[in-house]
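Title: Prediction job returns without error message
Component: structure pipeline
Severity: low
Priority: P3
Assignee: unassigned

Description:
Job completed but the reporter wants confirmation the result is attached to the right record. Sequence as submitted:
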Amino acid sequence: MTTFYFIRHGQTFANMAGLKQGTINNPNTYLTDLGREQAQKLADQFDISNFDRLFVSPLVRTKQTAEILNKKAGLPVETDDRLLEISYGDWDGQKYSELMAEYPNYFSPLVNDVTEDYVQAAPKAESFVHVEMRTAEFVEEISQKYPEDQIVVVTHGFTVRSFAINATGGQGLQILEPDNCSVTKILVDPLSFKQHLVYYNRTVTAF
């Protein structure tokens, strides 16, 4: 059984400003002081020293978070493009509030986030299903390669949500994005690829 621990990066300036980050990778998407504090608090309470390896999205905000988490453990680190955040296409970098005002039919009023059909309005946007496909591919490949390992994955909110959707067979917005620096644990059978969601969006106070 392969054990995955999926961690969302710490707070960024874009999070604080209410922007859709997507795959933007500039200083607006780097960790704030609070984001670094969140990562350090997690590192203090969630020691990864006994785990086997660390995978990270190639964006700076995840690398910053992973560096703090891995300072003591010194796990081998690999980056993987399949761990990237969903790309909102031309909506990347825009304010949630402005997008919701202009495209209300593509947002859920219950959770104030995009619905699956938002791709009809956002040029070059990535679909929910595409993110779920690339995250499923990652899980299958890594669990086959490391069938007994405990693996830490530092990634993004929608990406973590996609791993959980795959594990539970959900769809759409049935599972919402987790909090910054939260941990989600999923067990994967490397032969059948059956998955078990052990916990989701667990914050530092829970450890």
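Comment from assignee: result matches the submitted record. The chain is about 30% helix and 20% strand.
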